[in-house]
């Protein structure tokens, strides 16, 4: 079965993947459905014959992120287990259990007692950023990384904005426009553009005012 999208990732990968699950009627079709979902995300040209799970061309892309998660970029993720998802139940999140899942790095000198630092980001940079300005953080409410973001609701503090795309996955708002895009992602894109226009206008105005007062 060939499943691919000619012009990059589909407009709504959640809907694309969900359709394969919803339309499956046999055990065989249910088993194949996740593979079709992976093709939607990782085989957009339809040219890949198989997926290399461990033989990466760019090792740093995968192992680099995982090593960060094992040291100082710790995300409090866990799985609820069946029947909610196909993974073993690991909720509630437990730091001791999470650290033990990186034992495969022991061969390169990893020591979880000294290198696993789940609070490093907060200790190093703090929780508040009073001097930050002109930033838009956007996430889909179905984005795996949402809980690691600045805020998980639509809000702002000064010129720092958090925008949430309803039924959106990771990076949905920065993909190319599609006629079948949801209204939510269209609204978020318009807000992002409007904020950037305002910041550019304010910067130009401040520059011109400065020139006039010289």
TrEMBL record:
Belongs to the peptidase S28 family. The keyword Glycoprotein applies. It comes from Meloidogyne enterolobii (Root-knot nematode worm). It comes from the Eukaryota. GO terms for biological process: proteolysis. This is Uncharacterized protein. GO terms for molecular function: dipeptidyl-peptidase activity; serine-type exopeptidase activity. Gene3D superfamilies: alpha/beta hydrolase. Keywords: Glycoprotein, Hydrolase, Protease, Signal. Pfam families: Peptidase_S28 (PF05577).
């Amino acid at each position: 079965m060939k499943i691919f999208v000619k012009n990059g990732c589909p407009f709504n990968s959640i809907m694309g993947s969900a359709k394969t699950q919803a339309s499956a009627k046999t055990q065989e079709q249910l088993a194949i459905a996740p593979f079709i979902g992976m093709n939607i995300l990782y085989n957009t040209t339809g040219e890949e014959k198989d997926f290399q799970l461990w033989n990466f061309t760019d090792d740093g892309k995968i192992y680099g992120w995982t090593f960060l998660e094992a040291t100082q970029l710790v995300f409090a993720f866990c799985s609820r287990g069946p029947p909610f998802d196909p993974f073993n139940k690991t909720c509630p999140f437990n730091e001791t259990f999470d650290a033990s899942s990186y034992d495969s790095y022991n061969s390169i000198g990893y020591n979880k007692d000294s290198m696993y630092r789940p609070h490093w980001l907060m200790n190093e940079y703090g929780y508040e950023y009073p001097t930050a300005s002109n930033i838009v953080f956007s996430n889909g409410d179905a984005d795996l990384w949402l809980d690691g973001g600045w805020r998980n609701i639509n809000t702002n503090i000064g010129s720092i904005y958090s925008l949430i795309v309803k039924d959106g996955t990771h990076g949905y708002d920065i993909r190319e426009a599609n006629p079948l895009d949801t209204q939510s992602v269209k609204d978020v894109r318009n807000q992002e553009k409007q904020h950037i226009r305002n910041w550019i206008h304010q910067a130009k105005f401040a520059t011109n005012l400065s020139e006039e007062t010289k």
